[in-house]
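Morning run. Coffee first, then this:
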Amino acid sequence: MSDDTQNEARHGLRDRVVGTWRHAVDSAKDSVGDLINSVDADLLYDQGDDIADTKAPKVDIAQRWDERKFTAKLVNPANRRKLSVIIVGTGLAGASAAATLGEAGYKVTSFCYQDSPRRAHSIAAQGGINAAKNYRNDGDSVYRLFYDTVKGGDFRARESNVYRLAQVSTNIIDQCVAQGVPFAREYGGLLDNRSFGGVQVSRTFYARGQTGQQLLLGAYQALERQIAAGTVAMHTRHEMLELVVVDGKARGVVVRNMVTGEIETHTADAVVLASGGYGNVFYLSTNAMGCNVTATWRAHRKGAHFANPCYTQIHPTCIPVSGDYQSKLTLMSESLRNDGRIWVPKSGEDKRDPREIPEDERDYYLERIYPAFGNLVPRDIASRAAKNVCDEGRGVGPGGLGVYLDFADAIERLGRKSVEAKYGNLFDMYAQITGENPYETPMRIYPAVHYTMGGLWVDYDLQSSIPGLFVTGEANFSDHGANRLGASALMQGLADGYFVLPNTINDYLASGPFPKVDASDPAVAEAVGSVKGRIDKLLSIKGSRTVDSFHKELGHIMWDYCGMERSEEGLRKAISRIRELKTEFWSDVRVLGTGEGLNQALERAGRVADFIELGELMCIDALHRRESCGGHFRAESQTEDGEALRHDDEYAYVAAWEFAGEGQRPVLHKEPLVYEYVELKQRSYK
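And here it is:
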């Protein structure tokens, strides 16, 4: 028997054993979960008082940001040298904030778990960054960007924050051009634009398919300049494991040196979390494998409200899953939907090469269902449409979980060289991963977890419910509602870091400097003790299951029951299974090695433990919100033609969850959403 045949036999046996084990476990868990399925959703949490954003000025929305900047207290340059800020994360939001605050004269201490700030996940963004410059003279404006963003988020975002984002967007492009970011340009030398989903104008600035990389390098250069100037102290390979709260204020962090294993405490006058999103709760996502929720989840357990955790984004343009042992998914930029056409065969029995299927036997379903927007409908709508045609049995590729993204028309219309100039590196990446030439045969894509709109609750100043704790970028909830439009993540990260936070954190720091906090403070000792106790517990269990096996099981639960479609029954089942998984994790996980020195298994164990707790809250949040909106699609709440059906009379609010203590039910605080400048109505892209 050849080596290949032996390997195939071993893999087949392993697959059958794992499948039998998983079926037995699922059957047992189904019976155990019957109890929670009979519990009313309202009994899974307690109702708290309503909350509100009190920082946005009560003036016309177009004047609010200028008014807030003027009324916010200032700190004179000499006093800034006496004030310190900790920033966790070095992506676009974190790097830009650290560079700007360092330039302003504050003492900044920055942390990232990567070996360089350049490896932050922002570097993976491909398609572009939005700004209301109206270079194409096609009717764009600050107000239209504001409107598109509120509508794209299915009317579940706060008007004040979104309008400010649209205003600031125009400054971002000038900032980045001044840094040397090589945006694409037209023949005459002007910056080029393209369109993204959910809009009918061209407002997306781009650098081929490397926009995130180029923007991060610009922010990284600005950050490194401040590191060299001594205003920013950079700590790479350090992971935040706890927030230090003294007298109700955020005053520092406890971090683990991932190389030496040393537990360190760092204190400051304010703390900024710019640690990204939590898409890896699903295990398979387009996020880097190191992306995690620990920084924001530790802050949540210390009192920071977690807002709208169930709002997760499924991206329609991902390379389909290739096997059971895959650990990460690869995104193909949404920009490809500008020129690529999405289709499936009209008949599910048609298994011909796509190039052999004639036009009249193809279903360009997005163009058919949504003629006004076509292939550029928002991500949530495109994703559900792809799922629907695959559920009908018309999907393509292995397992029928794929649709075609076809560039034949664009190549014929524009020429191959023009397509290569726009998307060449994306086509090369697809070819390297799949072994198929997308210039000759259509790409195959399928939806996958990509971005999270939920995050820590913040007010207009980007301050959380813990005074002194500010949250920027994807780590907060504030700008995207229930669905993010493409090319708006980079916009928000840089807006928060370069322009918003530096103008609002002053108001808080003007009351400082605050009393010094040293290692003997009880709050510091408690935080350090909590971290060490947690590490010791993880290392002492010595169970039989790997960390990754728990993460994969959690991912299956979340994708099946809290993924593209959620239902009452499924969410109850998910909550039951997650609670059982948590119990099993803390009794049967096996973490090899010690706490001293490099231990990636220990790192993953801490992150997965937090993902399990977050997963339960996501499902409770999704269960309590008995409506469909954006990426949150409840099977029980849809229109006759299968579109998301909101219930504005009941659910027009931000769901901000408070941690009530270990073993206690979470507390729901509602922030009512009041729309003065945008009319609430059911979305339509037809």
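Residues 3-32 form the longest helix (30 residues). Good start to the day.
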